Structures are given as structure tokens and as C-alpha cells.
Amino acid sequence: DQFNDVVNLLAAPGWSQEPDVYSQLIETSNKMNGHWDSFVIADLPIIDVNDTNAAIDTMAKAIAWKLANSFYSERCKVCWPMGRDGARLYHLSTLFVVETMRTDELHNVVPMESAGNKKVPMKQLWFGATSGVIGYDQYEANTLCAEGISTAAYWEGSMRLWGDHTAAYSFSNPSSVPDH
User: Fold this and answer.
1) Helix or strand or coil: residue 19?
2) CA nearest 79: which of 45, 50, 124, 29?
């Protein structure tokens, strides 16, 4: 490439929750320019547009959707739900990409530290306009992390990114994720 940089992150906030886009991101991340593998940061949806616009507003629904739609690549982090700061809504993948890039920059652009537990500019989790779910604490957030879903949680006075595992991780049922 003309800048002599290796692309190590791929994301498509607002689109990556669509299975076809996710699959293309995963495929594209392998051997970019015939040499380098990159990492995908994607989102799970809060509305399942393929299922009569059903809300995905609980942890159980998010975990089930992730597995049913094959969002379990070891070369990916998947995030759920969204973040909100007043009227602003954020895809968590966006916040993970920004904090990953900031963290990498602190280490001479070497990806060696997670963006997990980094502060983010949001006040609350957002599960959709019609959802009655208001959020969860860090201990509950660990339920998602145990299934390879990264999220955000309130900790020490601020919202922070939460979850360091790839989408392939499953603590509670290691055999639930198919071999790749």
C-alpha cells in the first residue's frame, strides 16, 4: 500500500450485523494483499430485520442470534447492544475500533493490548426505541463475554468497553461453537 501500513482492523458499523456483510468482512480479512490477516470488529443487531423486525433486546436473544447466524469467527470481535449519549447512538464496534486504534498507537502500532475496560463517550446501553430493557451491570455483562460477545458496562464512574474474547469464545459450552 502507498502508506506502507498493514491494515489490521476491518469494520462496517451499521452494516456488519447483516450476515452477508459479516461473512464478506471475515473473508476479506484473510490474507489481505495475499499476505496479512486482519481482525474484524462487528455488531450484533438490536432488531432482527430477517425475522419480522423482532427485537433482540435480551442477552439470551443476542446469544441465540449470534449462534444461529454463525457470528463466531476466531478472527472477529462481535459487540452488542448499542451505546447512547443523549440523542447520539453508537455502534459498539465503532467505539471498539477507536479505542483499539488508540491503544495500538500507545504501543508503536503493535496490537498487543485489548481495548477492554477503556472508557467510552456514552452514558448508557441502548437496546432499541421500543425496548424496556435499561441495561445491566458488569457482572451480568460477563454473561455475554462468556459467550464471545463484547459489550459495555458502567465501572468506576464511567461506561467502559467490556469483553476481551473473540466471537469464537464460549466458556459455558465450548462445543457450542462449530470447528472452523
Assistant:
1) helix
2) 45
